[in-house]
Amino acid sequence: MRIDRINVYSAQLPVKNGVYRMASADVEALDSTLVEIVTDDGFAGWGETCPIGPVYQPHHALGARAAIAEIAPGLIGSEIASIRLLARQMNERLNGHGYAKAAFDMAFLDLLGQKLGVPVSTLLGGALTDRVPAYYSLIVGPPDETAKVAADKVKAGYPRLQVKIGGRDLEEDVAVVHKVWEAVGYKARLAVDGNRGMTVAAAMHLDRLCQAIPFVFEQPCNTMDEIATLKGRVTHPVYLDESTEDQNAVLRAISLGIADGFGFKVTRLGGLTKMTTVRDLCAIRSLPHSCDDAWGGDIIAAACVHLAATVEPRRMEGAWIAQEYIKGHFDQKHPVVIKQGHIAVPQRSGLGVKPEPGMFGKPGAMYGP
Ligand SMILES: [Mg+2]
Predict the structure, then answer these.
(1) What is the pLDDT of residues 257-295, one digit of tens each?
(2) E strands of 107-151, at which residues?
């Protein structure tokens, strides 16, 4: 099984029902990049990377495609057997840019799974469950309206809600946390996500003004250093999300004891293979975490779910997928969908999803003979 051709596509994913609003950015449409690796024995493996606009992280769609252009020619003719060897080949072509390499890593695992006749979750160490919890993100919005959506989503079966705050008056953020708690109480676990948008002072005020409400406080401030200063000064558990830009950042946060859990994004961490390392580091310290990505279609969704299935369920904070916010699916027959707040783990070999032939139009770039 050798790589014969690599096709690169872009897919526009408009946000359903308007704008997706976070402290750091408003998003109306996403530019997703898909990698299709075709082998000499007729298999096709897929990978995807979809930065949530150019300002959420130091990642962007054009950057992903430029990185892919550096890497792809060097992979033609490579055997799909050792994921570690393929990772080394990518590193020999380009330093860094893990979010672009992540798309290749997904496609390699998809191919290897198809060849061996096993789902990707098996290649990641083995599934512990056949169904993983999802969680719902409540975008930055007015308190009463947000509380109503929260109640509806709990009724729909979501076991966890994430309340987005920041980028506005503290008063409104405090009100939204109280209103959501009044609406759902203990029926759902709560995360309050500042998406890096708060000062340390604002985070401390919000913590104190919402003292009795059990939530985890996700990435309130911009840097890991700012968040480190919250240790011992806030009473809510603090999770890191955007600050975990690579494996080393996770190791640093764990060893410094400044994170009580994490929101992990598969492409940001450099792909599924790298995610297994941070998953195992978290297991050593009993740290909960999610298995998400910032955005993306069915390929990324499947990748997140395969990984989530390998995490000890009591520490699994859920898999966030963009399905609630985008129209349609890449794979009509086997879409990755949320039902009653949970997602079935694909059981077919590889990632278990295949984009409909021709749906992305002509490749934006092609590599190979
Ligand atoms: Mg987050």
Answers:
(1) 999 999 999 999 999 999 999 999 999 999 999 999 988
(2) 131-133, 136-138
